[in-house]
Specification:
This protein is an alpha/beta fold and 232 residues long. It is 41% helix and 16% strand. It has a 6-stranded parallel sheet with strand order 3-2-1-4-5-6, sandwiched between helices.
């Protein structure tokens, strides 16, 4: 962390403490800004699925702006709770790209080394998990994910993974457009570009869903299940 970033983070944290905020603060301090600009997390539908995006062996060694180990840990925390509640977990990997011409990036087919698409062992893939392999940014465009979710009665999705402005944003947009409620674990995602990460969280996500920290999402899920069990 640079001296400038450290000063910004320290000042931000002191401001949060003075206001007795209960929101989290995570290095680097843009997440403090993101939290204050996010839509409050309201609820989770009874049949909500978790979508874990592109946490695979060929991607996690990228030059991300947050420690990737912390992102993986938060994704796993969400996975554990969803599985414990018998809610659906979707593991998404990417194995290609669309064929259209672009100004940036290769214009021919992309080949991957052996194991590049493999899921991280930390995700502990289970037989009940849905596995989706995409050849696009978003998890819906080139797959049958929408059909699989709606066939199981899923009405809401929670997103975590990488990259914030790539696979996560594209999946969030597509999920919203297909009629799903969308929740985004903003401390459970990262990007290789800080400005892209911040722009997506502050300007895109509020238009397609609601945001919250991993801890907030888990706490809300636990509380809702307690209320439902008490009412039954």
């Amino acid at each position: 962390m640079s001296r400038r970033s450290f000063r910004q983070h320290s000042n931000c944290l002191r401001g949060w403490l003075r206001s007795e905020s209960t929101a989290y603060c995570l290095y680097p301090c843009q997440l403090c800004i993101e939290e204050r600009n996010s839509i409050p997390l309201t609820t989770l539908d009874p049949n909500t699925a978790l979508i874990v995006i592109d946490l695979q062996k060929g991607i996690v060694n990228g030059n991300f702006i947050h420690p990737i180990g912390e992102i993986i840990d938060r994704a796993r925390a969400l996975i554990d709770v969803f599985r414990a509640k018998k809610l659906l977990v979707v593991l998404v990997n990417v194995a290609g790209r669309p064929l259209g011409r672009t100004e940036q990036g290769p214009r021919s087919g992309t080949s991957f080394t052996e194991g590049w698409t493999g899921f991280l062992p930390e995700l502990d893939r289970q037989p009940r998990d849905i596995v989706v392999t995409k050849r696009s940014w978003g998890a819906f465009a080139t797959t049958d994910l929408e059909h699989q979710l709606k066939a199981r009665g899923v009405t809401q999705v929670v997103l975590t993974g990488v990259a914030t402005s790539g696979g996560v944003e594209a999946t969030a947009r597509q999920a919203y457009e297909q009629g799903f409620n969308v929740t985004l674990a903003i401390d459970g995602m990262t990007d290789i570009r800080e400005e892209a990460h911040q722009y997506t969280i502050r300007n895109v996500f509020p238009r397609v869903g609601e945001t919250g920290s991993t801890k907030e999402i888990i706490s809300l899920l636990e509380r809702l299940f307690e209320e439902r069990n008490a009412a039954s």
